[in-house]
Structures are given as structure tokens and as C-alpha cells.
Amino acid sequence: MAGFDKVVSSYEEAMAGLTDNMTVIAGGFGLCGIPENLISEIKRKGTKGLTLVSNNCGVDDFGLGVLLSDRQIKKIVASYVGENAEFERQMMAGELEVELTPQGTLAEKMRAGGAGIPAFYTATGVGTPVAEGKDERTFNDRQYILEEAITGDFAIVKAWKADRYGNLVFRKTARNFNPMAATAGKITVVEVEEIVEVGELDPDQIHTPGIYVDRLILGTFEKRIEQRTTRPSDKHEAKGE
Amino acid sequence: MALTREQIAQRVAQELKDGYYVNLGIGIPTLVANYVPQDIEVMLQSENGLLGMGQFPTEEEIDADLINAGKQTVTMATGASVFDSAESFAMIRGGHVDLTVLGAFEVDVNGNIASYMIPGKLIKGMGGAMDLVAGADNIIVTMTHASKHGVSKLLNSCSLPLTGKGCIKKVLTDLAFIEIKEGKFHLLERAPGVSVEEIIKLTEGELVVTGDIPEMKF
Predict the structure, then answer these.
(1) Which end of chain A has the least Cβ crowding within 10 Å, N or C?
(2) Which residue of A has its CA nearest to B62?
(3) What tens digit of pLDDT does each residue of B27-64 get?
(4) Could you give the C-alpha distances from A35 to A72, A126, A151, A225, in angstroms and in order?
(5) Which UniProt keywords apply (chain B) (predicted)?
(6) Is it the case that residue A23 has pLDDT exceeding 50?
(7) Are strands B50-53 and B76-82 parallel, antiparallel or unpaired?
């Protein structure tokens, strides 16, 4: 690497330094915008005892779900984990620790972690199991709970395009948690569909500045679809569910 | 007759107003999008980071990078915008969404809602529901009034873990449209052909019935 050039040439190099019992923050919503090849590399490495922070945990054979079969995940912090049979089995058997976190709170925990804010108050979760053991305080006659920020030893991120300096552009709803995840890793690794030369991206259009990015790798992606819903091409009415 | 899922959605759609930004939950709430009145414009917010959700794509239009919060492939309406999850929940938490429609297992007379967990049975997580009920002022809960075995889901006190405390003011069930205030349910409308007595029988929490209760109109 030279100067601000973040590009690495192998997935092994991209995930170098990941060791047992580390915390990894992952971008993605469902299977959309997940760093699928970085996850595969963690599986290949066989790193164990990981704490994963991610909105979801993939499906049995794709996304973070692939790390379950070899019991690589010790704990997961997520908002919704409903699409995965092995996950449910490990959770019910007490083999996997699960910290259910409201989606907006999870996004804000990552954002705060990346922005150097140790904790924040939110009304989300007041009076629910999420509030248990947390500080409560009243502002303007409304109750709030104190939620702590999250940072990771690694953050793994999927973006659409980047320049060699790690300036990132995301595409459509594949953005989701990725920009926050990118800010919250001690080492942030990003995989992208296209790497362009520095200067080719319009600075006004960059979603995540390269300062947050440590390593960048060009990948090819399966982009599996979780719920394929369509309407017939000859009609203009949306088909319900 | 109890309302069908489609009729529940249709009745909720009557509550939409021109210029509303609306978040629709998974299940029946999603169907509301099919009944937006022709003469008004609403914009659908999907909490995974899309404002201006369009209809489902054709086979040719499918894009793995474009889904809704139910993880279904969707399109973008004209004038749509996309953003990250923190921004999305800033909209929600900040009270910028005009109407939220979501499902529930139970609600009670104090406006509490339980919708995300059945201990020992169903532990999938709350997704964005806790943020939505805490952040929105205008919420409509859609649900069935009672279980198949006739056990009421409109309770004195929710028995399941709460999604939100004291945040629900309106509930539309397959039998009735109900307002929650001052620690009581208030019957606003009944489903066509459903009697007030039937509704009272299937409502555990105190139900206030004032005057003649009109039937819903479609």
C-alpha cells in the first residue's frame, strides 16, 4: 500500500489480523448489501468465538448464516433473526447468545460508535425488555433509556463503487447499515463491485469518505434475493404479498 | 361478518391523507398500499432506507439491491430517495412519518402493544417495530380481534413482552375500529353485520360504547 491507496489483492489479506473472540460489525439488511465474500473468508479462516453485530444473521446457507454451522459465532447483536433454522436451534439450545436490539437503536449505536459518542438517550424500548438494566431519564416529560455505542475490532462492508482511496458509493437499498458499520470498525474492510481511479468519483456524490476505510477489495457477488416478489409485466397493478 | 385481510387494509386506507408519509409494517399493513385513494398522493417509507416505495417489479425489473423492509423486491416511485439506516430511523424517531400501520399479538387499555416475541415459541426480534411505535404519534394497529379459539387480544394488560408502552391510540381489527384513551377501549365502528354484543364478548378490556355504533363503509 502506498499513501492513501487502500486496495488489497486477496481476501486473505483483506481479513488479515482477525482472531478468535473479536467483535465484527457487518453491514447489510437481510441478504441485501451484505459483504458476502468477506463472510466467506471468515468461514474459510475458521475464526471462532466471534461477536457479530449485524441487523440480521443471513439464512442457513448464505450470509452470516454460514458461520453458524462451524459454531464460529458466540454472540450476535441483531434486530431480527427469523429466517434461519440453525440459528433458532443454537439459540434455543443456549449455544448462541443473542442480544435483540431495536433496528433504529442498532443503527444509532454504530453511528455513535463511529462518531466518538459513547452513549445516547432514546425513547425506543422504554417499558419493554430492552430497557432492563439501563439508565432511564426524563426529558421534556418523556422517558428515555440510555443506550451505549458499539465499536468493532473489524467492520465488514459492501459498497457498490469505490476509488482507490476508499471513497465509497452505495447503490439503492444496499446502503442500509453499511455506512454506519464503515465508521465503527478499528479495521474497516470494504468489498466493492467496481474500483475506479482517484478523481473519477464526483466528491459531491461520495456517501462514505475514505478516511473510514482501511482495506478495499474488488469482488464478484451472487446477490441472492430473499423474497422474490413480482407483478405481471402486462399489468400495472401491484400484486399483494 | 368479520373483515377479510383485504377489507382491513381497505378500511385503514381511508385514514390516509393527501401528502402523508406512511410506514407500513409486514403482513396486512403492506396490503394498504393497494387501496390508496386515487385522488390523493402518499409516499411509503420503508425503514431499510427507502422513501417512495413503488410497486413490485416485473420479472425484468428485479434488482437485488432494491428491497423493502419485508425483504421483498420492490421498485422506486417517481420522486423516491434512498438513504442509510441511521437516516431512516432519524425520520422515524424524529416523528417525521405521518402514519405508521403495524400488526400486533396483543394491545391493552393503556395503549401498550406486544408484537415481537412469544417466549419459548417465537423469538425472531423486533426489527424496527420498537422504534416505530416510540417515534410515531399517529399509529394504527391492525390485528384479529380474538384468537381462533375466541380468546381476546384486546386486553386489560398485555401478557407478552411489550414492543412499546402507552403508545397505541387506534386499533383496527376484523370486527371493530377502536380508539384507546383514558385507560379504556372506545368502540368507533363495527364491521358490517357484526353486532356490538359480539364485539363486547370478544373484548377483555373495558369497552366503552356510546350511542349507535355505525358500520364501516367501503
Answers:
(1) N
(2) A230
(3) 899 999 999 999 999 999 999 999 999 999 999 999 99
(4) 17, 33, 18, 14
(5) Transferase
(6) yes
(7) antiparallel
Q: Which three three-digit cell numbers place residue A211?
A: 478516511
| ipTM computed for the complex | 0.96
Q: Which amino acid is at B32?
A: V
| Residues of A with Cβ-Cβ distance to B67 under 8 angstroms | 29-30, 32, 173, 225-227
Closest residue on chain B to A239 (Cα): B56
For residue A238, pLDDT beyond 60: no
Annotation marks residue B41 as catalytic: no
Instruction: Answer yes or no: is B43 within a domain.
Output: yes
Whether B192 maps to a domain, the answer reads yes
Q: Would residue B214 count as lying in a domain?
A: no
Grid cell at residue A50 = 466471534
- Residue A240 pLDDT > 50: no
Record: contact A173-B59, CB cut-off 8 A: no
The phi and psi torsions of B82 (rounded to 5 degrees) equal: -120, 155
pTM for this model (two decimals) = 0.96
Contact A83, A226 (CB under 8 A): yes
| Interface contact flag, A123 B88, Cβ < 8 Å | no
CA B80 vs. chain centroid, Å, equals 22
Per the DSSP assignment, residues forming a β-bridge with B117 are B123
Quick one: A94 exposed, middle or buried, by C-beta within 10 A (0-12, 13-18, 19+)? exposed
Instruction: Pick the catalytic residue from B41, B47, B59, B204.
Output: B47
- What topology does CATH give the domain A11-120+132-218? Glutaconate Coenzyme A-transferase (3.40.1080)
Answer yes or no: do B82 and A175 touch at CB < 8 A: yes
- Which residue from A30, A236, A238 is facing B34, i.e. has the nearest CB? A238
Q: In this complex, is the C-beta atom of A124 within 8 Å of any C-beta atom belonging to chain B? A: yes
Q: How far apart are the first and last CA of chain A?
A: 49
B217: in domain: no
The pLDDT tens digits for A131-141 are: 999 999 999 99
Count the domains in chain B: 1
Chain B contact for A30 (CB, 8 A cutoff)? yes
Backbone angles phi, psi at A89, to 5 degrees: -60, -50
CATH number for the domain spanning B187: value is: 3.40.1080.10
First to last CA, chain B: 14
User: In this structure, what C-alpha cell is assigned to residue A194?
Assistant: 467496481
B12, B78, B82, B85, best to mutate vs chain A, most A CBs in 10 Å: B85
The structural domains of chain A, with segments of one domain joined by +, span 11-120+132-218
